[in-house]
Specification:
The complex is a heterotrimer of chains A (374), B (343) and C (858).
Chain A lengths: L10 H10 L4 H11 L9 E6 L5 H11 L4 E5 L6 H15 L14 H14 L7 E6 L11 H6 L1 H5 L3 E7 L16 E5 L4 H10 L7 H15 L6 H15 L1 H5 L7 H16 L9 H9 L20 H15 L5 H5 L8 H17 L9
Chain B lengths: L1 E6 L6 H12 L4 E2 L2 E2 L3 H14 L8 E6 L1 H5 L5 H10 L6 E5 L6 H4 L2 H6 L13 H12 L8 H16 L1 H13 L3 H12 L11 H12 L2 H7 L3 H16 L7 H15 L8 H13 L3 E3 L14 E3 L3 H10 L5 H8 L6
Parallel strand pairs in B: 1-4, 4-5
Antiparallel strand pairs in B: 2-3, 6-7
Chain C lengths: L1 H5 L2 E6 L5 E2 L4 E4 L1 E6 L4 E6 L3 E4 L8 E10 L5 E10 L5 H4 L10 E5 L7 E3 L3 E9 L15 E8 L4 E3 L2 H16 L1 H5 L9 H12 L3 H10 L5 H16 L5 H7 L6 H4 L2 H13 L6 H13 L7 H10 L3 H24 L5 H34 L1 H6 L5 H16 L3 H10 L5 H10 L1 H8 L39 H9 L12 H16 L4 E7 L5 H17 L6 E7 L8 H11 L5 H13 L7 E7 L10 H8 L8 E7 L4 H5 L2 H7 L3 E4 L4 H11 L8 H14 L3 H18 L10 H12 L2 H7 L3 H17 L4 E2 H15 L6 H13 L3 E3 L9 E4 L3 H9 L2
Parallel strand pairs in C: 9-12, 11-12, 14-17, 14-18, 15-16, 16-17
Antiparallel strand pairs in C: 1-4, 2-3, 3-7, 4-5, 6-7, 6-11, 7-8, 8-9, 8-10, 12-13, 19-21, 20-21
Classes of the chains: A alpha/beta (374), B mainly alpha (343), C alpha/beta (858).
Chain lengths: 374, 343, 858
């Protein structure tokens, strides 16, 4: 694989960086070459898309931090209105600039003001000669804001004529962003999903100390063999691995089998994994519950899924809370008063009845579609 | 000669625009970069200022309105009206230049505003043929004469010359030229290629250019599909079939699920029968990736299972993606390829 | 103090109705009782007495003689009066007709026709004395100035005449009779007889100009002085009209720019001073009171040694000296007082200026003496000159110039003031503003055309910083003079170039002129609706009309009027109209709601002796609000009996009233309408040729081509001129190198093509190959589906097919979408929002034939 190298940065940092981002060397080197040296202008805007947990955010963060490039990192879901977003960016600018210690909150509700304040902020800092990176995570949220925000960010370099590059991270392809009135096309970069080999490598990295590497690797191998079909989400896989590992090494603990004979281990783990298969993604039950479940698998063939086990006995009032939450999640806000208040003024008989039977049959379905309310 | 630069992206309404103009004019109601006074006051003030001047005494002002089409949408087009009106009356000499990509801009002007607009229009078309395109390509890449290191500049420019004559490069450029004529995309391409240049790799090569162009050619959705899990792929195939059956009518999760079930029962060997919630989760993931899109926003009435959806993929996109899909089970491939015969 | 304002004043008839008219059902009375609850005084005013009537601004009530009192059918108490004009009511340019300094105490027997003499009784303030004098004689030193006025001459709006003997005698005996009633006037005196000490203290408080305690004083001290009394009543009205105005607001209200105080600038102080020198009457009612108090403390004149020896040299008799010193001492204080009464932050500046005036007195008084002597000399020959005054105004102007030059040597500000004494009657707001910011005003006053003068906003509005003057930086290079004939032509053809006359709009001009003129003459209100498509010269014509009317008013063929213009497009919000109108009328800046009430009061109240107001409302349709209250008010005011308001409403659409106005508004708008037809090609031709009058820059048929073309399209004069200008440019460009020629057909046609050719075809031809294929695909899809609309997916399939035919690799979906959005951005296509991806619908923005045509030949 391409060893990272770049004139601008010491090779030590680059090595360190490489160790931090396994299986993403090519992307990183690509980014490095695009960014160029600190003072070089880069693309005005870069659009990075890729699957969930394909390391977009992580790579950007580690890259910018380890190379100590001046940057602002904002998640557009946290700051979901333009005002919040712009102000947050300005605040981070102030904070990462050296001389201004106190971060005074500046009101900024239009992009016009933003550009003005931005210029001031950048001038005030010592790094006019460095590219400033503004990373907007979950950029799809930008589409919900005013129409001018996204195009303006795309050509921020031109509008402020400062050395700034805007990086947009999203899971959604650029075509779905493009505003109607035409805009400055960003440079799009794709973060491909991890291949099975990559997953193997990454997952094997965090093996528990008490077991040998290849033992854990074998476990991961089995795990992937089962789950790769269903899910390639790194996070989910990590969760599953952590969940089932104890079960996997039970025989070893009991001393029935050595770390070598994989057949026995497989026999042991297989049913559990099958069970687990039915709960991929749905965190219906906590890990502890899962443990309990693993223990009491005396009676055979209860393959009707874990939903059965999740009918835990709730306290009286919390049941009502649950129902209320369910209703709230399925009914418009304006009807809340009607449902959840005792005296909510008079309502016409007919639709009162309608509501009632609606509620009742919703209650019936509750068991199955619970996750709707979560 | 003072000039102002306003961009429709920044000055989103007349209030902001007025403040900005006043700021750039350094009128006397500006202190620091704060503009005092209400909207009404500002307008009165600015108009007054411009009215005071006349051709002989006050210095002419040039207004450049970028993204002109956005200014058109301001309330009553007050700003435009006044600017045009001033430019057409014996007041401060004013020139207004509007930049826009819209050909139909004149229809957007209100008629009294339109009447005040001196119908002076300059169209910038990139009306060059491929030869000129190549020349532009060369000019963009080649180093200027005053580059400090002549010898290197020499080498570089020769290299560029060779590139421009290289057949493959020309084909590549031809493709791009056919695809779009605008020079910005050419710049993106070249910039990407040039960014590979380093000490150990001093000259830009044809392969660099090809890499760059390949990077541009790839279909983003295909990329996304490529990253899906088999289960999700199956769902998409199910949707594809639904689309074929009901030629493009919207579907809901339940239908997709049934389709999937059929597939499982008939000819799934390697595929495992998943719980409905799991499938639902997979479906929601597709939703989140906007490969599937609800045609009406998730309303309060219908439950999630019965929301009507549309698939945002084309059949050949799916098939292409499947070709490239890593270790895809064969029966799934067959299922995807199969027409409605097995129904 | 509010309670005080609310204190009612009761009007009741004095005695039984003398005569009654059956038909008109009116009862006549011989007197009226005015009972004020606060100062439990009761005054009886009888027919024949002289009275003060409150005007539209409180500082300056009108003087009149009560001729008749009657009560009409509706139990409304009316009074018929004979007006007297104060010198300040006489237009500036007329004042020079009587060649003598006039004391504020002097009034003129008013014979101007314009003013209606039937007023509501409620506007009567109190009774005064008006003593007729013969021209020659000096004004005697009066006992109490607030009560007494002198009349020497009559004023009929054109010139001053001596009082005819019978009027003189009538006035005399009226005086005897009126003055006879003892308690009527004395009832107000006591407050006047206060120990000098107290007065002194007050004066000190006064000169410390804190708005609020000044305000208190205005209430407390002047209970006798006419101005303040009027003021209370004024504020009273306000208080009823609006919810309890704050002190500031009130002050603001009381300082409209028409007030004499607001108007007296430094140099006028000098004039007043030296008219004090020959007439004893002091310059201000407020000042006179101080004169009284000074006579109390005259023993110790601390500040005047420097002046008194000079004045000794000039005047010998001690009595003269006394008066003079008084007046000297007076000037600063009076100024301070004005400023404090005037709005807000102006006082410091006023102070300094008045101080200038003060110090100068010493030096200037000798200089002044010759001038005043000359004036005395002229006074003797006043009569003759009066007869021929209209003829030799010119010569007088020169004299005025001379005066101004002499004055300008004294104080910088006075020079400003003088040189626009010469220009227009509207300078009052201006000069007063100059005192607020001398430096800025100098700049602003340089190149300001007279008609925009009144539009200048008062600086020092609460928000904008104090001395902010709207001004564009000067240019550092001089504007080039047109070199060639073509450039000259281009200049003349620019829309901004003001033509000498407006050709082809004669009859419209005439109609509007007649309308306004008639309304002006019989002093009523009314409104006219003017419509017409853009560029048909509506606004230009109306402005022309106003210009002519103002001309006429200047040389007295018409009663003078006030001209106000608002433009709907220049308002940020319909309600701002009130604010602007009020500001232009009176120069006060208030909030919209407040302005509305003030205007309503101004127009609805039976304001006696108010100039007619001509209001132009341009772009009327933009004043539309959901409740339409703005329009309603605008058109309601003219229908009021007393509002002398003429409205000229201009808009684009002919049937605006029917379309957007609700009935009550439309009905008030009335039926006097006029629509400007689009210009015919003959008219356009005429316009062009009149603009480049006899300048050989255009071929005849070139002009004709342009005008025909435009007339066929819109009949928009602006367009026409634009084309011509463009043609000239093209011509210039063509004939740079060769000898400059004149504009020919070729140039014009080129210009026309430039302006009217649609860009689409060209755009398509210059599109990239795939974009063109995409368009073809759209056409194919349309043909297949038979609908003028398709989704990108369908088009994409067509596109792929086409590409196969062409034998080239088909683009990916991403590329297709990029292409689509590019075409959409330049609006060759109409596309939905892009987040529908393949399902967004596409439509052509031009006819299929055009696309076909564009794609055909290549």
């Amino acid at each position: 694989m391409p060893n990272l190298e770049h004139p601008a940065y010491p090779s030590a940092t680059l090595l360190h960086l490489e160790s931090l981002v396994p299986c993403r060397e090519s992307q990183v080197s690509m980014l490095l070459s695009i960014f160029g040296e600190r003072q070089q202008f880069s693309f005005p805007s870069i659009f990075i898309y890729g699957h969930t947990s394909s390391g977009k955010t992580y790579v950007m963060q580690t890259l910018l931090n380890t190379l100590q490039l001046p940057h602002v990192f904002v998640n557009c879901v946290e700051y979901f209105t333009s005002r919040l977003l712009l102000e947050e960016i300005l605040i981070q600018l102030q904070s990462c600039s050296s001389e201004t210690k106190q971060t005074s909150h500046v009101p900024c509700d239009t992009f016009n003001d933003f550009v003005r304040l931005f210029k001031q902020a950048v001038v005030s800092r010592e790094l006019q000669d460095q590219t400033l990176y503004i990373v907007l995570d979950r950029a799809e949220q930008l589409r919900e804001m005013e129409a001018n925000i996204l195009p303006a960010f795309l050509r921020l370099q031109e509008l402020t004529d400062r050395n700034v590059t805007v990086v947009l991270l999203s899971e959604i392809v650029w075509e779905l962003f493009r505003p109607n009135t035409g805009c400055f096309e960003p440079f799009t970069l794709y973060f491909p999903d991890y291949s099975i080999g990559h997953l193997q490598k990454i997952l094997s990295q965090n093996h528990p100390p008490e077991y040998s590497v290849d033992f854990y690797a074998a476990y991961i191998n089995i795990l992937l063999g089962v789950f790769y079909m269903v899910c390639r989400d790194l996070k989910e896989l990590q969760h599953l691995a952590a969940l089932n590992f104890s079960k996997y090494c039970e025989p070893v603990v009991r001393g029935e089998a050595s770390e070598r004979d994989t057949r026995k281990l497989w026999k042991n783990i297989e049913p559990h994994l099958k069970k687990a298969m039915q709960t991929v993604y749905l965190r219906e039950i906590s890990s502890s519950q899962w443990e309990r479940l693993q223990c009491d698998d005396r009676e055979p063939g209860q393959l009707k899924g874990l939903s059965a086990h999740t009918h835990v006995e709730l306290p009286y009032y919390s049941k009502f809370l649950l129902i209320a939450a369910y209703l709230a999640s399925y009914n418009p806000v304006r009807t809340d008063k009607r449902f959840f208040l005792k005296h909510h003024g008079k309502i016409r008989k007919t639709n009162f009845m309608k509501k009632h039977e609606k509620i009742s049959n919703l209650d019936d379905e509750m068991g199955t579609t619970r996750d709707g309310s979560s | 000669m003072k000039n102002h630069f306003l961009s429709g992206l920044l000055q989103t309404n007349d209030k902001v625009a007025l403040k900005e103009i006043t700021r750039q004019l350094h009128l006397e109601n500006v202190v620091g970069d704060k503009v005092f006074g209400s909207f009404a006051e500002n307008l009165a003030f600015l108009l007054e200022a411009l009215r005071k001047g006349d051709r002989t005494s006050s210095c002419p002002v040039l207004f450049i309105l970028d993204e002109f089409d956005l200014f058109v949408h301001h309330k009553n087009q007050t700003l435009l009206y006044n600017l045009f009106d001033i430019s057409q009356s014996a007041q401060t000499p004013v020139t207004v230049i509007g930049l826009t990509c819209r050909q139909d801009i004149l229809e957007l002007l209100e008629k009294r505003v339109k009447s005040r607009f001196s119908h002076r229009q300059i169209y910038l078309m990139n009306s060059f043929d491929f030869k000129q395109y190549i020349r532009i390509f060369k000019e963009q890449l080649s180093l200027p004469a005053e580059f400090p290191d002549e010898s290197f500049a020499q080498k570089w420019n020769n290299n560029v010359q060779h590139l421009s004559e290289d057949k493959t490069v020309q084909d590549m450029l031809q493709n791009l030229f056919h695809y779009t004529k605008d020079l910005r995309s050419l710049h993106l391409l070249l910039m990407l290629a040039v960014s590979n240049v380093a000490v150990h790799h001093p000259l830009i090569t044809a392969s660099d250019l090809h890499e760059a162009s390949k990077h541009y050619r790839m279909d983003s959705k295909a990329n996304i599909v490529h990253g899906l899990s088999v289960l999700e792929i199956c769902l998409i195939i199910a949707m594809k079939h639904l689309n074929d059956v009901y030629e493009g009518e919207p579907f809901n999760f339940q239908m997709v699920y049934n389709e999937f079930q059929k597939f499982i029962q008939r000819k799934a060997h390697c595929m495992y029968n998943f719980e409905k919630p799991v499938v639902m989760k997979a479906f929601e993931h597709l939703l989140q990736l906007e490969l599937v899109k609800p045609i009406e926003r998730p309303s309060v009435r219908t439950q999630r299972e019965y929301l009507l959806m549309k698939l945002l993929l084309d059949n050949n996109q799916i098939m292409d993606a499947l070709q490239a899909y890593p270790n895809c089970p064969t029966d799934v491939k067959q299922w995807a390829a199969s027409s409605l015969s097995w129904l | 103090m509010n309670t005080r304002q609310q204190s009612k004043i009761i009007y009741s008839w004095y005695g039984k109705p003398m005569s009654s008219d059956r038909k008109l059902r009116t009862f006549q009375y011989k007197g009226i009782l005015i009972k004020s609850e606060r100062s439990r005084t009761e005054t009886c005013i009888q027919v024949g007495e002289f009275i003060l009537v409150e005007g539209e601004n409180a500082d300056q009530p009108f003087v009149a003689q009560l001729l008749d009192l009657y009560e009409d059918g509706a139990q409304q108490k009316h009074a018929v009066v004979q007006w007297f004009s104060h010198i300040t009511e006489i237009p500036q340019n007329k004042r020079k007709l009587l060649k003598r300094e006039v004391s504020p105490q002097e009034v003129f027997f008013d014979q101007v026709s314009g003013y209606d003499t039937d007023i509501a009784v409620e506007t009567i303030i109190k009774s005064v004395m008006v003593i007729p004098l013969h021209l020659g004689e000096e004004l005697p030193i009066p006992l109490n100035k607030e009560q007494t006025f002198y009349v020497k001459q009559s004023w009929d709006g054109k010139c001053f005449k001596a009082l005819s003997p019978d009027t003189f005698s009538k006035l005399k005996e009226a005086n005897k009779k009126g003055g006879g009633i003892p308690y009527s006037s004395n009832s107000f005196l006591p407050s006047d007889i206060i120990s000098p000490l107290k007065k002194e203290r007050e004066r000190v408080v006064q000169s410390a100009t804190k708005p609020k305690n000044v305000e208190l004083e205005i209430e407390s001290k002047h209970s006798a002085s006419k101005s303040s009394l009027a003021k209370e009543r004024h504020s009273q009205r306000m208080a009823n009209g609006i919810k309890t105005p704050t002190a500031r607001k009130k002050l603001q209200l009381n300082s409209p720019t028409r007030s004499p105080k607001g108007r007296i600038p430094g140099c006028e102080v000098l004039e007043l001073l030296d008219d004090d020198w020959d007439t004893v009457a002091p310059l201000e009612p407020s000042a006179t009171k101080r004169k009284v108090k000074f006579t109390g403390i005259l023993g110790s004149p601390p500040k005047i040694p420097c002046t008194n020896d000079k004045s000794k040299s000039t005047f010998d008799t001690a009595e003269h000296w006394k008066r003079f010193s008084d007046t000297i001492r007076l000037s600063p204080y009076s100024k301070v007082k004005d400023s404090s009464e005037k709005a807000k932050n102006l006082n410091m500046k006023d102070d300094t200026i008045s101080l200038i005036g003060h110090q100068e007195l010493g030096s200037c008084s000798p200089v002044l003496t010759p001038r005043s002597r000359r004036i005395c000399a002229q006074k003797t020959s006043a009569r003759i000159t009066e007869q021929i005054s209209i003829l030799n105004t010119l010569e007088l102007n020169q004299e005025e110039d001379f005066l101004s030059s002499s004055d300008s040597s004294y104080s910088s500000s006075s020079e400003e003031e003088e040189n626009d004494v010469l220009c227009t009657p509207e300078k009052k707001t201006k000069s007063s503003r100059m005192f607020s910011t001398p430096k800025s005003s100098r700049k602003s006053s340089v190149h300001t055309p007279a008609k925009t003068l009144k539009k200048t906003p008062l600086p020092g509005t609460p928000k904008t910083p104090r001395n902010a003057t709207p001004e564009i930086p000067r240019r550092n290079h001089e504007a080039l003079k047109p070199a060639s004939i073509l450039e000259e032509a281009r200049l003349r053809l620019h829309v901004s170039a003001i033509p000498e006359s407006l050709p082809c709009r004669e009859e419209e001009f005439q109609d509007i002129y007649n309308f306004v003129e008639s309304k002006l003459i019989d002093g009523t209100g009314g409104c006219m609706y003017i419509s017409g498509v853009p560029g048909t010269g509506k606004t230009a014509t109306v402005h022309e009309v106003i210009r002519c009317l103002q001309q006429a008013a200047e040389n007295d063929d018409l009663p003078s009027f006030q001209f106000v213009e608002i433009n709907g497009m220049k308002l940020t919000d319909p309600h701002q109209a009130y604010v602007q109108i009020l500001e232009l009328l009176t120069g006060q800046k208030v909030t919209a709601t407040h302005a509305a009430t003030l205007l309503a009061k101004l127009f609805n109240a039976p304001g006696p002796k108010r100039k007619t107001t001509v209001l132009i409302v341009d772009e009327l349709d933009l004043l539309w609000t959901r409740k339409q209250n703005v329009m309603y008010n605008l058109f309601d005011w003219p229908t009021q009996k007393h509002s002398k308001l003429i409205i000229l409403a201009i808009a684009n659409t002919m049937d605006l009233p029917e379309r957007i106005m609700m009935n009550r508004v439309a009905s008030r708008l009335g039926l006097t309408r006029m629509s400007f037809q689009p210009y015919t090609y003959k008219q356009l031709q005429q316009i062009i040729s009149s603009r480049l009058n006899s300048m050989k820059a255009f071929e005849e048929d070139a002009i004709q081509l342009v005008s025909r073309k435009v007339a066929a399209l819109s009949g928009d004069a602006r367009r026409c001129l634009d084309i011509c200008r463009r043609a000239t440019e093209i011509c210039e460009f063509a004939s740079q190198n060769r000898t400059p020629e004149i504009v020919r057909m070729a140039h014009v046609t080129e210009a026309i093509d430039e302006m009217f050719s649609s860009p689409y075809i060209n755009a398509i031809r210059n599109a990239s190959l795939h974009e063109q294929i995409f368009l073809k695909a759209i056409l194919a899809e349309f043909r297949r589906a038979g609908v003028e609309e398709a989704t990108v997916q369908q088009v994409y399939r067509q596109h792929v097919v086409l590409c196969r035919i062409e034998g080239m690799r088909s683009p990916t979906v991403s590329e297709i979408l990029a292409i689509c959005s590019r075409l959409g951005a330049c609006r060759l296509l109409l596309v939905e929002s892009s987040n529908k991806y393949l399902h967004m619908r596409v439509r052509l923005n031009i006819s299929q034939d055009d696309v076909m045509y564009a794609l055909k030949d290549e």
